[in-house]
Amino acid sequence: MVMHELGLLTAVVEAILQAADTASASxxxxxxxxxGTLSGAVPEALYGAWPIATDRTICEDAQLRLNVIPATVYCxxxxxxxxxxxxxxxxxxxxxxxxxxxxTGREFEIEWVEWDCPDTVGAPAAGTDTGxxxxxxxxxxxx
Length: 143
Ligand SMILES: [Zn+2]
Known about the structure:
Belongs to the HypA/HybF family. By secondary structure, the protein is an alpha+beta fold. It has a single domain (2-113), classed as hypothetical protein PF0899 fold. Helices cover 27% and strands 26% of the residues. The protein has 3 helices and 6 strands, in the order αβαβββββα. It has helices spanning 3-22, 43-53, 131-137; strands at residues 27-36, 63-69, 72-75, 80-83, 102-104, 108-116. It has a 3-stranded mixed β-sheet, covered by helices on one side. A hairpin with a 4-residue loop joins strand 3 and strand 4 (80-83). The longest helix is centred in the N-terminal third of the chain and has 20 residues, at 3-22. It is elongated, with a radius of gyration of 24 Å. Bound molecules: zinc ion. Zinc ion binds next to loops. Zinc ion binds at residues 75, 77-78, 92, 94-95, 97.
């Protein structure tokens, strides 16, 4: 049912996790994807597969937003990009000239991602009682 979309989203989540790791992000809040109407991905199925693709990752509570891009072709006779219906052939809807020049509609890409980045990572504040840690980790240079 949503296997195709799940595969696409798994790749998206992997890319986000890699970038989030580099940025030391702790939690992803929102993800926006560009989805062309001819990309082969169905928005409803993407929404359905999102919780599965993000399960047990820092993306699991992130909200998915889809920016659906209509399919357009470039017509050399009209000299402009014109929107076509996704189910129609590659014809200019204005003058009916056949065109193979799909301008937009095949997009499937990450538009933007919003995440939380902690200001300080790791280091315990000075004065923190690290007695039991010192005993086991042997960081005896700490004052
Ligand atoms: Zn035309």
